[in-house]
């Protein structure tokens, strides 16, 4: 028998591998950071002696979810202001709160986000915000996988000051975190409306030079598109194509207000899309034409966007919304079927982030980013179909165990790497100071 | 000091009473089936000596939610068939499964629904299905409040046979359950497309005679409206108005495909509406014009519809969908604000069912239907606004305690009136037999 670190057994193993294997009473063997083997429990139990055995108790063993768009530290602003026109929300509530941000606040807000993400089954997130060095440290400390990048725009930032410094800050992040097993640094200009062509081109050069992914907000609303048309006489996607910004390592967030030509550009340049339906609904931005993206072969992942516009980071709930929203939008109950949506939240999410060789499915040699769902609960009985269950019935609260890179981050709903009471207290203190200052 | 049965203390008391009182560090005193007093904890603690003290630990104490439209026993078909065209779903999957229904299956399916409802904070549901005597018994046994009625249609039923027997069955139910503290019997013809005018008129006569509420599916899709137009030359609402069926004790489920005239009819006759956005999305039926209903002063509650088309009974998740869906539909982030949506799920839901004098808010003299939300969890930190939290961040899993009619049904997530393992096993056995028969 071969010695390994972890054997997860007694569950439905949903691999999300190319063969779509689903093994009833299966097991997953983990050694170090990686998956060693997946198969029937009977076989693996005789083949491996594990330091730790995790009993899935008949639940679902599957790849951890990939949240392709977050502003993690904005957990501090969860529910600070809702049901408001976008500009009132931004200018009267979010921007004033953000003007007081510090590295410490971002770190504590991100820790809370990591707690929420792990507790709801997400094992990788892709973040854009300020003070992203703090985000990277918080994620690393929590043991969660993350793609992080400092937001860049034409005006001065509370973190780095003028944008030239932002580009340098990004290059420093790339150097500091290179070869980190969990953290990938991305280059992240905010959007075509907040970034000059000059900034976008410089950002792209840094990304290309370092082989780094890029993240940008793209066509979140018709208002944004109208703004760009007025400024440049073209849509945001056309504008980015024109200046040579589009490419396969670009992650475009939202993509709500898209023309036929825009969609063709995404496809032609193999741009990846992060779809954030709940945020788009809550801010009344619109509905991204995701069924069309998929029929064109564009890779789409799912994101929650921030807690200020959602107001949670539960990707299982987001999957439910993805499946249902496009059905009613197209008046076709067959679009966005459950297997498609689970793919978007796992292996396709990994593809969006350029991490598909490492994560997104349970396959021999891939990193051990694994979650277990407890299905012995009234709202998960009976189970006719695993995919349907994951999309329409499971919520993040049903995730009992989470493993990232071979490290157990949560077991039986208890977080191991984070002191949850301290994490909550820290952010409650931040919120109190925000309320005090807003009242002053 | 006055002796009472239960004192709930140390929480935010959200009353949903006409004055919208919200008491930080409040308490609720319960004696027998009713609420005796609501106020600051300091005052109530000195005034009452309670047999049982429940510590809300800083959470939210609020009225139990009211689910205005369910087919509870269809928990047995949760995820049986998804992502299919409506007619394939109904004729190839749901109808064959329903043809084999028995009173025992309905009872066991309803018990599972009651478990799920209580666990997610719903304390009253309004049900339409077959073998509703079994539903009433299962609800009563679980201690949950319910409005139930046997579905009536022109063709023979697996329960009562020909529809004349269905009308008699309904009258018997009304007699049997009259004056029950938890169960109200409604008269429930399925819809204008499955019920002849003769049946509808007879049903209405029984309802009027007994002062019973009525429930009907109304304009769930454009397809249904087209069918009615072809048959009668008018919309379902016009048709029902024409035959004298509309009135203030009528609960109309769905109301998705509505004309201006239809909406005016609902208002003129004070018809109540049960809004089921997730089911309408999943079946690609359409989006009910709820903001318009509300602006006209029509009373609207929220429902989940069945587990076959949702696939859960979590009314907190449904609230989130209500708030977000109409924002993106109208492209206005200010519609369906959080307080409005919480009202729909509580006091307005009670109004829909005609139970507003008994439940839907925490007020002295009302029945003690109360839930407690645990907010000491990462995804519920921080809390700036209670209403926003309930709609956009809380899920049913966060409900720790549920009380109906003064009886504690759940404490610290443990169900008291139902043996949850047996309840789950029973429905798993039903599901196995459905799968076997479908495969045979």
Structural account:
- 2 copies of one chain form a homodimer.
- In chain A, a hairpin with a 2-residue loop joins strand 17 (407-411) and strand 18 (414-415).
- The first copy, chain A, has helices spanning 41-47, 86-99, 103-119, 132-142, 163-177, 197-210, 222-232, 236-242, 260-268, 277-282, 290-295, 315-330, 338-345, 347-352, 386-392, 420-439; strands spanning 2-14, 22-31, 34-40, 48-55, 60-63, 65-70, 122-129, 145-152, 183-185, 188-189, 214-218, 250-254, 272-275, 300-302, 370-373, 399-404, 407-411, 414-415.
- Chain A folds into 2 domains: 2-63 and 368-413, Urease, subunit C, domain 1; 72-352, Alpha-Beta Barrel (TIM Barrel), CATH 3.20.20.
- Helix content of chain A is 40%, strand content 23%.
- In chain A, strands 1, 2, 3, 4, 5, 15, 16, 17 and 18 form a 9-stranded mixed beta sheet that branches. In chain A, strands 6, 7, 8, 9 and 10 form a 5-stranded parallel beta sheet that branches. A 4-stranded parallel beta sheet of chain A has the order 11-12-13-14.
- At the A-B interface, helix 3, helix 10, helix 12, helix 15 and helix 16 of A face helix 3, helix 10, helix 12, helix 15 and helix 16 of B.
Descriptive labels:
2 domains, 9-stranded mixed β-sheet, alpha/beta, 40% helix, Urease, subunit C, domain 1, TIM Barrel, 5-stranded parallel β-sheet, 16 helices, 23% strand, homodimer, 440 residues
């Amino acid at each position: 028998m071969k010695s390994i670190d972890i054997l997860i057994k007694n569950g439905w193993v949903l691999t999300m591998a190319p063969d779509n294997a689903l093994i009833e009473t299966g097991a997953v063997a983990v050694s170090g950071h990686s998956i060693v083997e997946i198969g029937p429990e009977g076989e693996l139990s005789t083949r491996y002696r594990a330091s730790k055995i995790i009993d899935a108790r008949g639940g679902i063993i599957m790849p951890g979810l990939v949240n392709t768009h977050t502003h993690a530290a904005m957990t501090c602003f969860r529910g600070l202001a809702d049901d408001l026109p976008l500009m009132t929300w931004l200018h009267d509530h979010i921007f004033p709160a953000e003007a007081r941000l510090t590295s410490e606040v971002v770190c504590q807000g991100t820790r809370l986000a990591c707690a929420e993400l792990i507790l709801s089954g997400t094992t990788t997130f892709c973040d854009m915000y300020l003070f992203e060095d703090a985000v990277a440290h918080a994620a690393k400390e929590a043991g969660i996988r993350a793609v992080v990048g400092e937001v860049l725009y034409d005006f001065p930032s509370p973190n780095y000051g003028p944008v030239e410094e932002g580009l340098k800050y990004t290059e420093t992040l790339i150097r500091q975190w290179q070869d980190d097993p969990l953290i990938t640094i991305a280059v992240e200009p905010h959007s075509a409306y907040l970034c000059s062509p000059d900034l976008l081109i410089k950002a792209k050069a840094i990304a290309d030079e370092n082989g780094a992914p890029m993240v940008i907000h793209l066509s979140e609303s018709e208002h944004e598109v109208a703004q760009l048309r007025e400024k440049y006489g073209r849509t945001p996607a056309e504008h980015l194509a024109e200046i040579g910004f589009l490419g396969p390592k670009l992650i475009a967030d939202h993509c709500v207000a898209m023309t036929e030509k825009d969609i063709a550009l995404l496809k032609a340049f193999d741009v990846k899309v992060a779809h954030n339906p709940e945020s788009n609904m809550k801010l009344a931005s619109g509905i991204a034409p995701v069924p069309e993206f998929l029929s064109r072969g564009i890779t789409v992942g799912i994101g929650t966007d921030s807690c200020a516009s959602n107001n949670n980071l539960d990707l299982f709930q987001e999957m439910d919304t993805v499946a249902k929203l496009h059905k009613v939008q197209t008046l076709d109950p067959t679009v966005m079927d459950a297997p498609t949506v689970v793919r978007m939240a796992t292996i396709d999410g990994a593809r969006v982030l350029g991490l598909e060789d490492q994560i997104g499915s349970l396959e021999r040699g891939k990193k051990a980013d694994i979650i277990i769902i407890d299905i012995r609960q009234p709202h998960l009985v009976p189970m006719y179909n695993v995919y349907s269950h994951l999309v329409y019935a499971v919520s993040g609260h049903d995730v009992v165990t989470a493993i990232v890179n071979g490290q157990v981050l949560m077991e039986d709903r208890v977080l191991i790497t984070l002191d949850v009471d301290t994490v909550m207290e820290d952010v409650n203190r931040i919120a109190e100071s925000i309320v005090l200052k807003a009242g002053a």
